Amino acid sequence: MATLILIVLLPFLSAPIIALLAGWDRRAAPWAAGITTLSALVLLGLLVSHVDLATPQVIQFAWIPQIGLDFAFRLDGLSILFSSLILLIGLLIIVYARYYLAPQDHPGRFFSGLMLFMGAMLGIALSENLIQLVVFWELTSLSSFLLISFWQHRKEARQGARMALAVTGMGGLALLGGVLLLGHVVGSYNLSVILGAGDTLRASPLYLPILLLILLGAFTKSAQFPFHFWLPNAMAAPTPVSAYLHSATMVKAGIFLLARLFPVLSGTDAWLLLVGGAGLITFLLGAYTALFKHDLKGLLAYSTISHLGLITLLFGFGTPLAAVAGIFHLINHATFKASLFMVAGIIDHETGTRDMRRLGGLARKMPHTAALAIVAAAAMAGVPLLNGFLSKEMFFSEALEVAPDFGSVWLLPLLVTLGGVMSVAYSIRFVHDTFFGTPDPDLPQEIHEPPRMMRVPVDILVVVCLAVGIFPALLIGGLLNFAAGAVLNAPPPHFSLALWHGFKLPLLMSTIALGGGILVFVLRRPLTRFHEHGIGRLNAKILYDALLQSLQLAARVVTRTFDQGRLQSMTLWTLITALIAGGIGFLSYHAPLFGPEHHAPAFDGITAVGMLIMMAAALAAVWMHPKRLLALLPMSVVGLGVALLFVRYSAPDLALTQLSVEVITVVLMLLALRYLPAQSTAEPRPRLYRDALIALLSGVGATILTYAVMSRDYENIAGYFLAKSLTEGGGHNVVNVILVDFRGYDTFGEISVLALAALGVFALLQNLRLPQGTPGPGSRSAAHPLLFQTLSQLLLPLTLVFGLYILLRGHNAPGGGFIAGLIVASALITQYLAHGIHHTENRLLIPTHGAIGLGLLLALGTGLASIGAGYPFLTSTFGHWQIPFLGNLELASAMVFDLGVFLVVLGASVLMLVQMAHLGSVPLDKPAKSEGVVS
Amino acid sequence: MSLLFALLIGMLTATGIFLTLRAQTFPVVLGLTLLSYAVNLFLFGMGRLASNAAAVLGAQTRYADPLPQALVLTAIVIAFAMTAFVIVLALKTRAELGNDHVDGTADDAPEDDSAR
Fold it and tell me: pLDDT by residue (tens digit) across A372-416?
């Protein structure tokens, strides 16, 4: 069974190889593609002959079992039928394409695209897991996009490819939604489970949404009305692609899905109405439009749409026999339509045109091709002795069977006969206008048969049409029975495949279709005139383009309104949105907003005064902000207040961190102020009022939210950390243990961010030339007061030792890598401030980049070491060591991690500040005179 | 006490947002700093306010919730890194575009949002 996976993977594996081979020798590409296909076919044959297929065979590996996603493949009648169809027709197409491609076409791109598609298609056919099926489904859309746009220089190829991708991609998204809902209802994404859960599904209230979404996927893929319009536009692809993807296989994927899910989704009125209705409209519309197309491939495209509609209609009927007929017609259509497309390609290849108004009389010049085309077209029309006749007769008889469900007894038979009439008419037209009639005088005279091997694939397909048409029961009965069993997930109904069923109604309908078709063909000129003055002006592409354009226009208008490329308005819109969302949240909340305040801390006068001072300072900062240096004062008051609040409410680690960060931030801002204007310019008053209103509302919202949360009772997971900190983390300081152990992965991410920010600052400040700001307090002469210099030199060793102490004790008492890093950084920065940058760097060279790198490596190393020891990433260990002079010492591996944190914080902080300080010492090329001009 | 704490957070948010909406880079930096104070205090407050209960085992019997503290600790450091980055970005704008307007347009003409 593992061979099954190999069959799917083989084309994917060969795609890149083919692309490489083609660069070496262009003839190698088709050979490699052909050999791949042949081997996949042989493997499939071997597998089928060796595996017991009385029940469906499944092979699966857990992929992401938590969401029900398995890597699972399935072998049953339907999947065997479909995948052998893909491989056999694929092989013929490869042979044909070998001669079709022009010397300037890139064979590597073509054949590797084809292989990619083949692999994706086999994936759809053989998937057991529905999500996996959707993945392959999207892959077919993508490879189809690549193949339609193969001639990238042509505008219509690019447009057609984009349209196909937009329509089928949208359908794929809908399908994914449907499959997810389906899996939710059934409880599994695997077909073996789903196929047995039809009754659950049909009884579920989600049945209709599921059906609609899945049908959206199937209909877009199989070009059913009203999504049919992409298929004719996809005909800009090279003809082998049209024959393979857009006629024989990919467009059948939607129908395959209908067949696959037939046992669970069918049997309801909604199914009959939606599937039957779409199928019927598509069948008639496609056949009617095909009648008036002048382009050979255009005619075939609409005829394909019509036949896809026919098959969909059969599945829509919902009876077991109709499903059998549907599969039968699926095979037959693939054979005769692929051969007709190849004929169209041959004609295009030999004459340089596909316009039926110019073509004619080719029967004398290429009799062999003409004979093939006539037989294939007859099969398409449903002429007896050919496979198309048999499936069409089954179709007629099923239509009679279910007619009572479709209104009056004669309505449905009448409509399907009408469709048959038109099929016959366009089939005759295809043959007559190309091979008989009078050619356009401009047509080249030197027209001859194509290369022998280009015709062989058509030969084979046409022989199949004939053979199946004459000996149906013998050649196809068994396979059909086998596949039907898989589709129905039950023993298949009895059906008889025979040429002659006696004089019955279906035969009458066939006869009417043939006679009527000839009549319509004779009357085609007046009919065409009538069509072209009326309905023919309607074009789905125009509608699609208009829709797309209005969508783009709407998107542009919305973008222009909200995104004017200006930060102020964007921030404003973001805030307004947040306010609206918050407002909705508050207003739609009905329980009491505030809780009983069980945890309220006791009132404390000093703290209250402190908080009031902080509020006043924040207001003062706003008040003073135009005078920038001044505004830093109240800012520091707020920052200091925050640190004191952390002290007051039992967070010593936070207080230490906040304090050191505050120092460094203020230094940073002072440095920056040297290069920024000292004062802000005034802004218009209405804007200030507006912003004040927004700010007020946000503040009120934040207050209510905070109080609402804090006044309630709460449960936390603190107990876990408090209990495990010593036993599993080996530290008394729980905050630090959480940082370096329990949530070490987070911390690792955070120091990476820090490192990146520092390096970003470094990169941004490289070669930056700034105009010198006001020569204020920072001017050179008074820069380094003696007292400051002396004191800072005295303090340096003390602070360094203190930093080390804080680092080492961090696991057990307030401290740790973050705080120690910041303290040591501020000590070093003090040196820079006191002595000037050059003086300090001459004596004390700190490898900041190295510190950051080493710190990250240390942190990563501790994590990897625990993986090496067989534990998850960043698991820590600890132990007690007896060390001379120091006594019993408890050491945890997390301390190494903390050392890494220390180094990163230290390196990053110093790097950022030193870079800023360096700015001033960069000699300016020429001093900027005015603010606006910078050298 | 919680109410006062909530009011403080509201005030810091309001002032922070007002400054964030200004047209020049330096007030925006100040505004972001105030906002980060507000957010850090808010996160800290989620663990409730407890006196004399530092989460260092063995010191006492009652402990404050250590988880928000750990989260806030890294948040402070990250906020510092972001502040530094924004400041440098402001300097870069000033150097490349010759002004300190948030949009890099020199003339802060009283053209309003609706004008374009």
Answer: 999 999 999 988 889 989 989 899 988 888 888 777 778 888 899
Inter-chain contact A621–B4, Cβ cutoff 8 Å? no
Closest-CA distance, A487 to chain B, in angstroms, reads: 56
Strands (E), A65-127: 69-75
Residues in chain B closer than 8 A to A568 (CB atoms): 21-23, 102-103, 113
Q: Kindly determine whether residue A635 and residue B30, on different chains, have CB atoms separated by under 8 Å.
A: yes
CB A4 within 8 A of CB A75: yes
Q: How far apart are CA A318 and CA A106, in angstroms?
A: 46
Q: Look at chain B and count its residues.
A: 116
From B23's Cα to the closest Cα of chain A, the distance in A is: 7
Contact state of B63 with A722 under an 8 Å Cβ cutoff: yes
pTM of the model: 0.70
| Calpha distance A895→A804 (Å, rounded) | 12
Cβ contact, residue pair A706, B53, below 8 Å: no
Which two tokens mark A765? 């400040």
* Contact (CB, 8 A) for A625 and A631: yes
Q: Mean pLDDT over residues A416-442, rounded?
A: 89
d(CA A36, CA A852): 51
Which among A714, A760, A933 has CB closest to B48? A714
CATH of region B2-50+59-97, choose from 1.20.1070, 1.10.10, 1.10.287, 3.40.50: 1.10.287
Q: pLDDT at residue A852 above 70?
A: yes
pLDDT band at A757 (very low <50, low <70, confident <90, very high): very high
In B, minimum Cα distance to A813 occurs at B56
> Quick check: A278 pLDDT over 80?
yes
**Of residues B9, B87, B111, the one with CA closest to residue A768:** B87
Who contacts A780 (Cβ-Cβ below 8 Å, separation ≥6)? Answer: none
Is the CB of B98 less than 8 angstroms away from the CB of A931? yes
Instruction: Compare CB distances from B27 to A615, A625, A684 and report the shortest one's residue.
Output: A625
Task: For chain B, give percent helix, strand, coil, nearest 5.
Answer: 65, 5, 30
Q: Tell me the pLDDT of chain A averaged across its residues.
A: 87
Cβ separation of A657 and B73 shorter than 8 Å? yes
Distance in angstroms between the alpha carbons of the first and the last residue of chain B:
47
Q: How far apart are CA A486 and CA A908, in angstroms?
A: 65
Cα separation, A224 vs A216, in Å, equals 9
Backbone φ, ψ for residue A129 (5° rounding): -90, 130
Render pLDDT for A42-83 as a digit per residue (tens, 0 to 9): 999 999 888 887 888 889 888 888 887 889 999 998 999 999
Partners of A74 in the β-ladder? A58
Ramachandran category for residue A385: left, alpha or beta (phi over 0 → left; psi -120 to 50 → alpha)? left
CA A664 to chain CA mean position, Å: 44
What ipTM was estimated for this complex?
Answer: 0.91
A60 has which bridge partners? A72
For B13, the closest of A699, A726, A750 (CB atoms) is A699
Token pair in block for residue A898: 């903390």
Distance CA A390, CA B41 (A): 79
Report which secondary-structure segment, H or E, holds A478. Answer: helix A472-488
Helix axes A894-921, A786-809, angle to 10 degrees: 160
Cross-strand pairs, A355: A295
Alpha helix (H) residue ranges in A537-627: 540-562, 567-587, 605-624
Question: Contact at 8 Å (CB) between A331 and A476?
Answer: yes
Cis amide prior to A492 (ω within 30 degrees): no
A220: alpha, beta or left? (left if phi > 0; alpha if psi -120 to 50): alpha
Residues from chain A contacting residue B41 (CB–CB below 8 Å): 642, 645
Helix (H, G, I), strand (E, B) or coil at A30: helix
